[in-house]
């Protein structure tokens, strides 16, 4: 196992892609659902929010790159994806809440099979 050491902390190379892949997968699914159900005017507002999140990501990436090296880009990307997931998730909760349809991560997960 190869270790990468930055100025802040050590992490394994194998761990970085796996958590980024999980975030990307969740983001893709949540945003796909948002774009499937949102009205055009709502998408315009959401896109403006996503642009603001991207600007925050770019600033954070530069700051973290200077502070901790290339690990900063991974950290900034993770924060960027998490922010997009939160905004999309909040939209979905509002969307389904207006239709009296319960929407919960606990209820959305598959049932356990014995």
Describe the protein in words.
- This protein is 73% helix and 5% strand.
- It is mainly alpha-helical.
- It has a domain at 39-98.
- It has a two-stranded antiparallel ribbon.
- Helix 1 packs parallel to helix 3 and helix 2 (40-68) packs antiparallel against helix 3 (71-97).
- It is elongated and about 45 Å long.
Concise overview:
With 114 residues, this protein is mostly helical.
CA gyration radius, whole angstroms: 17 Å
Residue stretches low in confidence (pLDDT < 50, at least 5 long) are none
Shape: elongated
Helix content: over 70%
Mean of all residue-level pLDDT scores: 79
Biggest sheet record: 2 strands, antiparallel
Order of helices and strands: EEHHHH
Strand order in the sheet with the most strands: 1-2
Q: Structural class per helix/strand content?
A: mainly alpha
Tell me the β content.
Answer: 5-15%
Q: What does the oligomeric state look like here?
A: single chain
Topology, number of strands: 2
User: Count of DSSP helices?
Assistant: 4
Alpha carbon gap, first and last residue: 36 Å
